[in-house]
Structure formats: C-alpha cells, structure tokens
Amino acid sequence: MRQLIRQHTPILRRALPAVALWLGALVLAQICGATGVHAAAQTEPEPMGARDATAPEAGMVRVLGTLTSTTDAPAAYTFALIDVTGALTTTPTSWVPASGQMLGIQLGDDPSAPLTYTLNLPILPTGALVDLRGADAGADGSGVQIFEAVAAPSMVGDGYLQLFEQRGDLRSLVRAVDTGRIISGTALIYAAGEEAVFPTDAGTDGLFFSADDGRAAVA
Predict the structure, then answer these.
(1) Burial environment of residue 205 by CB neighbours within 10 A (0 to 12, 13 to 18, 19 or more)
(2) Buried (b) or exposed (e) across 36-46, using 16+ Cβ within 10 A?
(3) Residue 192 parent element (H or E)
C-alpha cells in the first residue's frame, strides 16, 4: 500500500481541526481525520534535511512530502496540488484542467528509496473561488480555493496530470464511492477576503460542504 507521509510538521497551527497559514491566506485544513496522503508546509525555503521551524508569520511558501510503498513503485511520479471545486457539487466531477493544478518536483530517482517531492506555492493560486457562508455568500468577494495533494505515475510525460492520470487513489481527500462527495482527508485552502469560512464538521447529514456544516472563519 503506497502512501504519502507527513515530513515536516512543526509549524502547523491549530485554528481549524488542523491548520497552517500560507502567505497569510492559505491554510492546511484537516477534514474529519487523516487519510493515506499527507503534505506538510514550510514557511520559507530551506536546505533539504533542515528541520528548524521558522515563525508562522512568515507565511507558507513550500510543501514537502514523501511517497513510501510496500510494493514496487514507478520511478517517476507527478506530484501536484489540484483544485477540488468540482467535488463540491451535487454531481461531482473528478477532471481538473491544467489551470487548476500546481505542480511539484520529485527529488531523486532511486526506486528503492522513499520518493520525496517539493512544491513551491504561488502567491496567488488559480483555483475556483467558493463562498461557503450560506445565505451571506457572494456579498463581498470572500471565499476559499480548495486543493488536495495528489501523486500519480507520469504516463504522458507532459508535466500536468491528464484525466486518466487523476483517477488514482494517492490523494489527500477521501470521496464516497457512491456519490463522489468528499468525506474526510486534508486540504490546502487559500482564503480571499476577511470573511472567508471553512467547514469544521459535517453536520447532521454527514456530508461536508452542505448547508448544515459547522463553519469557522479562516484566520
């Protein structure tokens, strides 16, 4: 069973169930427990092997991760953060175009060792903005962009993850088999505006991103 494991954790901030700021606006939010895919955030670039946490106020600029496997793994993976807006609708779609992907870089190519990757975070990501405030949605341009970490074998070799490459299960968010709706995992979110909110629980219907979710401000 392959899994991505958390590699650098000291700067995680506990505001939502598990939260860390990215450039004052992006956060790492855990949804209802852990999954097999995790990524960690760094506040500033540092040499590989360094593990001293820097001040959270510096903002997150990089994600680090490691892919380990108990079976033979392909030597080349594509690592990315991808926009998951399509999974929030009543008819979820799993296809994410290149504009909704932030690509990482694999470090090393030894197939016998855990695969590590790094991903530099942009100042302004290009995902779709979602306002989760219910009746107040759309009033002032506040909202969040929501991303998950994905690792997929590089089949086409063009850098971005194509449709069939995105169908693997090495991802940080877990979806219900019957509906495709997000039910648990870890997301990296970008908050736009001072009133942006994000779910803290799934409410009585057990579904995240529905009307009865508990919500908290992203701060």
Answers:
(1) exposed
(2) ebbbbbbbeee
(3) strand 182-192
What is the 3 state secondary structure string of 30-75? EECCCCCCCCEEECCCCCCCCCCCCCHHHCCCEEEEEEECCCCCCC
Distance CA 59, CA 99 (A): 23
Distance CA 197, CA 219 (A): 9
- Which SS3 state, helix, strand or coil, does residue 137 take? coil
Tokens read off for 188: 């990296």
Q: pLDDT tens digits for 113-170?
A: 677 888 888 878 878 888 887 655 556 667 888 888 887 776 666 666 766 566 666 7
Q: What residue segments make up the domains of the chain, in order of their start? A: 3-217
Backbone region of residue 203 per phi and psi (left: phi > 0; alpha: psi in -120 to 50; beta: other values):
left
What is the pTM (predicted TM-score) of this model? 0.67
Hey, which residues does 144 pair with through a beta bridge? 130, 191
What's the pLDDT at 216?
84
Give the separation between CA 128 and CA 114, rounded to whole angstroms.
33
> Quick one: tokens of 96?
């994410």
Q: pLDDT by residue (tens digit) across 185-217?
A: 888 888 877 778 888 888 888 778 888 888 888
Measured CA to CA, the distance from residue 145 to residue 83 in angstroms comes to 7
Amino acid at 8: H
Number of C-beta neighbours around residue 28 at 10 A: 26
Specify the residue for token string 């590590």: 116
Beta bridge partner(s), residue 199 = 215
